[in-house]
Amino acid sequence: MTKTNGRRRVVITGHGVVTPLGTGVEKFWSGLKAGKVGIREVESFDTQDLYITIAGEVPDFDPKVHLKSRPLMLADKYSQYAGCAAAEAVEMSKIETPIADKEAYRSACVIGSGVGGLTTLEFSYKMLFQENKRATHPLTLLKAIGSSASAHVSIEYGIKGPTYGLVSACSTASHSIGNVYRMIREGLVDFGIGGAAEASLNWGATRAWQAMRVLSPDGLFPFSKNRNGTVLAEGAGILMLEEYEHAKERGAPILAELMGYGSTADAADMVNPSIDGASAAMEMALTDSELSPSDIDYINAHGTATAVNDLNETRAIKRVFGNAANNVSISSTKSMHGHCLGAGGGIEAVAAIKAIEENYVPPTAGLTDPDPECDLDYTPLQGKEREVSYAMSNSFAFGGLNAVLVFGPPPA
């Protein structure tokens, strides 16, 4: 079964998450529906000399409980998060592993990270420059590299096709998913794992983000008049993508269809986003999905709660959607799970898929006093039931790197 233009269709047969609302899709989605906020005082590192002391830490991740692989037990936490989320997605997809030789080269694994094993690096530099050690841990390099997560997952399941890590700051997961989508659609592979993981919560990273003056000491309040910055978080979001006929033939559960993908660069500024780049990415994703703006029922907004981003995203949605912007439900789930950086787009893609599955729009928590210029339906405070056939997920990163995904219901 193909689209009208003859391309292969791509479906989602599994997904997995590690988030500040809990590990696993069930905990995550239940938290979103309840409007639960996973942003809290930092516990994993000393916040002395920091004025930012809150973050979205994962509260319930125990490698001994959530991981079976010994190599992953020795890996950086970002790879462990990826391995855990991938395991949930693979198990849900019911695909047989290790993947048989005849299919191993027809599979892909693209798992990125904004910064890779940053906590491993901080620990190693502390050993060298503060404690005057003569050497670091022998696995430092393997733990820190940005392709470590994808390599671990590839080894775990016998994936022998295209496998690599991808880096595009806060759009990393969406670009990774988009890459696997394109490979399947164009016939290079038949199925693959796509997404990203991030575990960069440490003293040094927080100090660096503090210096940019983009972090809030109070919380993450997208589209609010009183928004005062974003909140760093960690986690992973992973999808199992599969060619529709391949999934159908093996009787796989089909959660949704990935219908469109758009990717652009602002080519303007490292920090301040442009309306043009975001608009073009949304338009490309709609064109790719063969949908019109009026078909979209829900948008999971990038919604970082910075002054410029939220306003520009609002304006970009209005430009692309026209009158239909007044009918679409929108929310920023970052208000609950924080800004998971490179992993954000994967986690938010899962939220979009669940919105379609349950016909439910999660809320934007803390939106008590909306910015008059952010005047769309941002689903304040409480989620709501409504028919959600098609959902869009926006990721707009530092450097002006934009990625947009459009999901629809399982093919009839």
UniProtKB/TrEMBL annotation:
Coiled-coil regions listed: none
Domain Ketosynthase family 3 (KS3): 7-409
UniProt xrefs under SUPFAM superfamilies: Thiolase-like
Record keywords: Cell inner membrane, Cell membrane, Membrane, Nodulation, Transferase, Transmembrane, Transmembrane helix
Highest taxon of source: Bacteria
Lyase keyword on record: no
Subcellular location: Cell inner membrane
InterPro entries: Beta-ketoacyl_synthase, Ketoacyl_synth_AS, Ketoacyl_synth_C, Ketoacyl_synth_N, PKS_Beta-ketoAc_synthase_dom, Thiolase-like
Function according to Swiss-Prot or TrEMBL: Proposed to synthesize NOD factor fatty acyl chain. Involved in the synthesis of a highly unsaturated fatty acid moiety, which forms part of a lipo-oligosaccharide that is responsible for host specificity.
Family in the record: Belongs to the thiolase-like superfamily. Beta-ketoacyl-ACP synthases family.
NCBIfam families registered for this protein in UniProt: PRK07314.1
PANTHER family: 3-OXOACYL-[ACYL-CARRIER-PROTEIN] SYNTHASE (PTHR11712:SF352), POLYKETIDE SYNTHASE-RELATED (PTHR11712)
Listed name of the protein: Nodulation protein E
UniProt source species: Methyloligella solikamskensis
Source species taxonomy: Bacteria, Pseudomonadati, Pseudomonadota, Alphaproteobacteria, Hyphomicrobiales
